[in-house]
Amino acid sequence: MKILVTGGAGFIGSHIVDALLNDGHEVRILDNLEKPTHQQGIPDYLSPEAEFMEGDVRRVEDLRKALDGIEIVFHEAATGGFTPNISTYIDSNILATARLLEVIRDERLPIKKIIVASSVGVYGEGKYNCPKHGIIFPHVRMEEQLKRRDWELRCPSCSLALKPLPTDEMTPVRPEKAYSVSKFSQERLVLSIGMELGIPAVALRYFLTYGPRQSLFNPYTGVCSIFSTMILNGMPPVIFEDGWQTRDFVFVEDVARANLLVMKDPRANFRVFNVGTGRATAISKVVEILSKAYKRKVQPRIGEQFRLGEVRHLVADITQIAQLGFAPQVPFEEGIRRYVDWISSQGNIHDYFTAVEEHLRGSGVIRSCQQ
Ligand SMILES: NC(=O)c1ccc[n+]([C@@H]2O[C@H](COP(=O)([O-])OP(=O)(O)OC[C@H]3O[C@@H](n4cnc5c(N)ncnc54)[C@H](O)[C@@H]3O)[C@@H](O)[C@H]2O)c1
Ligand SMILES: [Zn+2]
């Protein structure tokens, strides 16, 4: 098969590229080497066996060239992260996807399948249980609550603390940030227009993906990278809230495997799948595991700040994709070991987060608790 991976020079895209090459496919990459993710041009991890095309998914001309002769598209290119931007996400993520679909339609390209990268962000807070009222899908917490350091979610009817449940694909979506709004729109566009054009489409909602090649230059994405750069620079890692918020961390090679699986299995067509592990890890635990792995003692700054709109707990229910045969193969501790080995091979690691922390606070992304 001749396959296009947009964003194939990036973290997840490049692992999909490698998995496809391993599987014997011909691969083309369309990537604009966006900054700050890429600081040094074409990353050295990129396989020379893939055809690299420098270009922008927002430009119809670049899309036309990149799609020529292609049978399958993995659409990974996107602007990510927790930034105050709004229009950038609409432009890079929604409009670019719209143009991609228009080129495919208008040129009557013989595309056999499109797989689009979506995100856990579409769920907002996801699924919880109230001991009195059963299953509920709460709104994100308000600023007043967070300022008082009252971290857990409460039932809107009885105020009891809610227990997080694994979030499945039937959970109503509630994207809270421009980024997640854009990811949900991308998924809907690809699935609906795919249906209209008779092109099988699949949307994968990645949970928190980590592993080698996650950009160390982008201070807005990748909690493992942000913590790593702080620990290695002898700075106290900043943990938002009390550190007991949980996330589902999935190793990047498992995410790449999920992509190949849905490419091959027609049962996946026109569906949406969570890609995670089903295992919850507290953010404090991540710092602890990382500092052990780097053999550094750290004193995190904790409980001083929070990010408005951030969710408290989110873990994937992976029943749907498991039914296609997906099982995560890399446990968190092993994935972190492999990630830390990679970081150690990267020479001096600069801390980019601290430089933008002030800006994030100024623009209201990061807020402080009451003294
Ligand atoms: N990393 C995660 O935890 C995570 C979680 C959920 C969803 N996702 C999604 O997965 C996909 C890949 O993310 P990633 O973590 O590998 O990020 P990344 O930044 O490493 O990769 C994205 C790649 O896309 C390229 N790109 C960005 N804008 C482009 C444009 N306009 N034209 C061409 N190329 C462009 C970048 O240069 C980069 O190489 C994205 O769609 C992202 O929204 C990632
Ligand atoms: Zn209740």
Descriptive notes:
There is one protein chain. By secondary structure, the chain is α/β, with parallel strands linked by helices. The protein folds into 2 domains: 2-127 and 165-360, 3-Layer(aba) Sandwich (Rossmann fold); 128-164, no CATH class. The chain is built from 11 helices and 19 strands. Strands 3-2-1-4-5-9-14 form a 7-stranded parallel sheet, sandwiched between helices. Strands 7-6-8 form a 3-stranded antiparallel sheet, with no helix packed on it. The protein has a 3-stranded mixed sheet with strand order 15-12-18. It is globular, with a radius of gyration of 20 Å. The mean pLDDT is 93. Bound molecules: nicotinamide-adenine-dinucleotide and zinc ion.
Strand content: 15-25%
What is the helix tally? 11
Provide the gyration radius in Å: 20 Å
Helix content: 25-40%
Major sheet: arrangement of strands: 3-2-1-4-5-9-14
What are the distinct ligands in this entry? nicotinamide-adenine-dinucleotide, zinc ion
- Can you tell me the residue ranges where pLDDT is under 50 for at least 5 consecutive residues? none
Number of strands: 19
pLDDT averaged residue by residue: 93
Structural class from helices and strands?
A: alpha/beta
Main beta sheet, described?
Answer: 7 strands, parallel
Q: What number of domains?
A: 2
List SSEs in N-to-C order: EHEEHEHEEEHEHEEHEEEHEEHEEEHHHE
CATH architecture of the largest domain: 3-Layer(aba) Sandwich
CATH superfamily (homologous) name of the largest domain? NAD(P)-binding Rossmann-like Domain
Shape: globular
- CATH topology call of the largest domain: Rossmann fold
CATH class value of the largest domain: Alpha Beta
Distance between the termini: 59 Å
